[in-house]
């Protein structure tokens, strides 16, 4: 039996397919985190708005989404909703699920960032009579961003890795491609190793990018 | 409507700019204000003294609506802060009405509360742009003048973190002045400062008290300073005003035993 340890020509032959998969992985991450960053802020604001019922519902939603496995949420959208006439393509389902789960987590990060702003800032705004819109855009958000951005960055990296789970609903992202290649040739070593490496390269680069942003925001 | 139109009330003379009636407040089981009346005439300088927890800071915060009383009324000029007239009857009203009513009042805090992401000039300018609706150019010019007045013309492009506590407090004073308040509240504005920086802030306050025709309410532990600039001193103890009169009386020749004890304790520091 000739079990060569690492077959370079085989590795090269599956690389194009893996890169195709990486494209989908990155696409799902970008759209999913865009939803999370925007919708997470909306959730955070709704929760804070002290509108009876709305705040409680949003609170429950956020806690529920954070407290249940992503896989269950994904399966729910993929397998349950179509029974009620809500049907998306696998990729769309994956992006929506990532976005919803990410929103709940982002909402918590926004809340944490908001809590670091001293009460005195709000009191100054109130006593000066600043219009409420300007209180947010001119005073609170500018102080919130430098704190929220690194947290959101880490969330994006976590979501990037979570996209692997989309392979379970037939999205042909990086992991699904690696598994397919292995299934066809009975060699899993090269495709899975390379898939792991590709994940690592992208997330490591992103983490460095976030640290750079952080250091630039430090002053 | 002319703002100087006198509103007849059972108490409080013509020209009172601030009328606070029977204010009560409890935090949990602790009563901080136990039926307090304060009237302030336009331009009057009033010092609020007393032991900590006696209610003086709470009264100050109530005068601008940072703390809502459990009961009692607050009138600024002719407007109620937490009430409005509905069918000739006084009815409770909310934050929206308070926003309008508190407009003539400004406040300077113990902890400065400057906006850390803005320069000194921007701190002073932004409220003028946002609240008074001045153009950025007008506001810049006006803000520069104000910073010059408090002795900070060379620091106008610095952020709060680059300024000393005394300088930050002077920026905060300029920021409040920019909105041309008719009543200005000073909440222990030198208490957070290093001792050597207290003087520069007191100097600004002293100048203001002479040059400005706005009413000033100061919660302060600087008794000598209070005696110097105040027209009137209110002595607080356990949620009540126990002595009210000119500094020559309340500080110079206190009539109430508790006031005498307090002043003696302060002087022994």
Q: How would you concisely characterize the structure shown here?
A:
The complex is a heterodimer of chains A (219) and B (269). Chain A contains eight helices and no strands. Chain A has 219 residues and is mainly alpha-helical.
What does this structure look like?
The complex is a heterodimer of chains A (219) and B (269). Chain A is mostly helical. Chain A starts with 7 loop residues before the first helix and ends with a helix. The mean pLDDT of chain A is 92. Chain A has 8 helices and no strands. Chain A has a single domain (16-218), classed as MetI-like (MetI-like fold, Orthogonal Bundle). Chain B is α/β, with parallel strands linked by helices and 269 residues long. Chain B has helices spanning 56-63, 95-101, 120-132, 136-149, 165-177, 195-211, 223-229, 247-250, 257-267, and strands spanning 16-27, 30-41, 45-49, 71-76, 79-80, 83-86, 89-92, 105-108, 183-187, 215-219, 232-237, 240-245. Chain B starts with 15 loop residues before the first strand and ends with a helix. In chain B, α3 (120-132) runs parallel beside α5 (165-177), α4 crosses α5 and α5 (165-177) packs parallel to α6 (195-211). A 6-stranded mixed sheet of chain B has the order 8-9-10-3-11-12, with helices on both faces. Chain B has a 4-stranded antiparallel sheet with strand order 2-1-4-5, with helices on one face. In chain B, 35% of the residues lie in helices and 26% in strands. Chain A binds chain B through residues 118, 120-121, 123-124, 126-131, 134, 138-139, 142-143, and chain B through 64-66, 99, 102-103, 105-107, 109, 111-117, 126-127, 130-131, 175-176, 179.
């Amino acid at each position: 039996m000739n079990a060569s340890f690492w077959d370079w020509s085989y590795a090269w032959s599956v690389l194009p397919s893996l890169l195709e998969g990486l494209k989908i992985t990155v696409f799902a991450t970008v759209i999913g985190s865009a939803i999370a960053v925007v919708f997470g802020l909306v959730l955070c604001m709704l929760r804070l708005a002290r509108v009876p019922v709305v705040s409680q519902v949003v609170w429950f939603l956020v806690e529920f989404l954070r407290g249940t496995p992503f896989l269950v949420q994904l399966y729910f959208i993929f397998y349950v909703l179509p029974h009620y006439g809500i049907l998306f393509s696998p990729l769309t389902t994956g992006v929506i699920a990532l976005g919803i789960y990410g929103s709940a987590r982002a909402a918590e990060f926004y809340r944490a960032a908001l809590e670091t702003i001293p009460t005195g800032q709000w009191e100054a705004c109130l006593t000066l009579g600043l219009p409420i819109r300007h209180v947010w855009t001119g005073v609170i958000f500018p102080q919130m961003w430098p704190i929220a951005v690194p947290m959101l960055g880490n969330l994006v990296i976590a979501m990037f890795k979570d996209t692997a789970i989309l392979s379970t609903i037939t999205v042909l992202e990086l992991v699904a491609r690696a598994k397919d290649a292995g299934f066809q040739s009975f060699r899993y070593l090269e495709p899975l190793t390379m898939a792991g490496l590709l994940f690592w390269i992208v997330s490591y680069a992103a983490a460095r990018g976030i640290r750079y942003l952080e250091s630039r925001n430090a002053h | 409507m002319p703002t100087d139109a006198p509103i007849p009330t059972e108490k409080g003379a013509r020209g009172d700019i601030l009328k606070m009636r029977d204010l009560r407040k409890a935090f949990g089981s602790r009563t901080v204000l136990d039926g307090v009346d304060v009237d302030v005439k336009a331009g009057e300088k009033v010092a609020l003294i007393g032991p900590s927890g006696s209610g003086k800071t709470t009264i100050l915060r109530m005068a601008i609506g940072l703390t809502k009383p459990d009961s009692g009324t607050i009138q600024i000029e002719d407007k109620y802060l937490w009430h409005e007239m509905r069918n000739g009857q006084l009815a409770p009203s909310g934050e929206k009405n308070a926003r309008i009513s508190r407009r003539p009042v400004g406040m300077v805090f113990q902890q400065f509360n400057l906006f850390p992401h803005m320069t000194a000039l921007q701190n002073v300018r932004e409220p003028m742009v946002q609240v008074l609706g001045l153009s950025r150019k007008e506001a810049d010019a006006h803000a520069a003048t104000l910073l010059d007045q408090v002795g900070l013309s060379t620091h106008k492009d610095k952020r709060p973190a680059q300024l000393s506590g005394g300088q930050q407090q002077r920026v905060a004073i300029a920021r409040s002045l920019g909105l041309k308040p008719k009543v200005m509240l000073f909440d222990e504005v030198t208490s957070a400062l290093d001792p050597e920086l207290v003087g520069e802030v007191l100097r600004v306050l002293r100048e203001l008290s002479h040059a400005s025709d706005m009413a000033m309410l100061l919660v302060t532990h600087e008794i000598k300073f209070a005696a110097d600039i105040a027209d009137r001193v209110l002595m607080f103890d356990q949620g009540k005003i126990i002595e009210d009169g000119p500094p020559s009386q309340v500080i110079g020749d206190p009539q109430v035993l508790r006031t005498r004890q307090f002043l003696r304790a302060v002087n022994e520091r």
